[in-house]
Amino acid sequence: MENLQKFFKNKKVLVTGHTGFKGGWLTQVLLNCGAKVSGIALKPDTIPNLFTALQLKNKVNNYFVDIRNFKKIKEVIKKEKPEIIFHLAAQPLVRQSYEDSLYTFETNILGTANILEAIKETSGVRAGVIITTDKVYKNQETGRPFVEDDALGGYDPYSASKAAAEIVIDSYIKSFFNPKDYNKGYETLIASARAGNVIGGGDWNKERLVTDLVQGVYNNQKIIIRNPEAIRPWQYVLEPLFGYLLLAKKLHEGKREFSGAWNFGSNKQNLLTVREFVELALEILDKGKYLIKRDFSKHEAGILKLNCQKAKKNLNWQQTLNITETLKLTFAWYKSFYNKENMVKITNQQIESFFKNI
User: Does 142 have pLDDT greater than 90?
Assistant: First the structure.
C-alpha cells in the first residue's frame, strides 16, 4: 500500500458515483492516500447512507450531476482537470432494472459513453478505470469461471446494460485510445473492471442481501430470501477497490498492456449459496431468523464465477479475506454505526487494517 500512497499523493482524481457504496469507500481510500478528489454523482438516495456517514461532502469537490448529462459532465472534467478517473456511477440493481429498464440503459450505457467522450474531448486524463460488473458475460449457467475474452451478454436489463457498456468501452479503446497509438497525439489509457457481490459496511441499497440482513436483525424482523440455492462469489469491498487502484497506477504510468478488461472476483472458498451466506451471517451476528419466499418472477443468475488469473499474474492482485472475515468486518461496521460511533474513524481503521495485511 505504501507504493500506492506515494503514487496517489496529490494526484487529481475524479470519482463518479462517489455518493454510492463502492464509490464512497474508494473516495475515502483516495483521501487517505493524499489524493485531491472530486466527485460526480446524484445525491444519496437512501437514509442512512455512506456519503453522509463519512462526511465526504466536506472533503471533496462535489458535483451533483446526472451522468446522462454530457454537457455538464464535460464541464466538470474540463474544470477539475483530473489525471485519473474512476467511473462507478450506475443504476446498480438487477431487480430495479426490471422496474425502470430505460433509465437503467440510459444511465449505464449513455453514462459510460459520456465519460469516455468527455475524456476524449478534454486533455489531461491519463488513466480511466471504468467499473462494470461480473454479470456482463453471456451466462449459460455451466459453472465454468468466466475469463475476460468470453462472450458478453445479459438476460436482465441491468446485465445487458453493463455488457453493452463494455462494448462501448472496447470501441472507444480501439477507436480513440488504442494502446498501439499511445503517445501519438494522446497519453490516455482506458480499462474496464468487472467485479460483483461486493459487501461491506455502509450499503443501504434496497434488495441487497446484507442490507436486508442488517435491517432485519436491527428491526427484529425475519430476513426474506428469494433464491436460496443461487451461488455467488462474495468479496469484501476493499478487495476489488485495491485492484482498481493498482490498475489505475499502471495505466497512468503508460503501461499500455494494462488497457482492456479485467476480472476482480473471489476465491473458490468464498463461493457460497445465498442460504449458506445467510446462515453464516446470522451465526456471526448471533441473532436473527430467515424465511424462504422463492421468487423467480425476475430472472437472476443461478451461478456466477470469475477467473481472475490475469489480475493475479499481472497485477499481483488476489482476494485475501475469507468469507467469515469479510462478514465480521461488515457487521462490525454496521454495529458501530447503529451504536452512533465515529464512522470516519471506524472506516479508516478497517482501511488501514486491510492494506496493512495485503
Answer: no
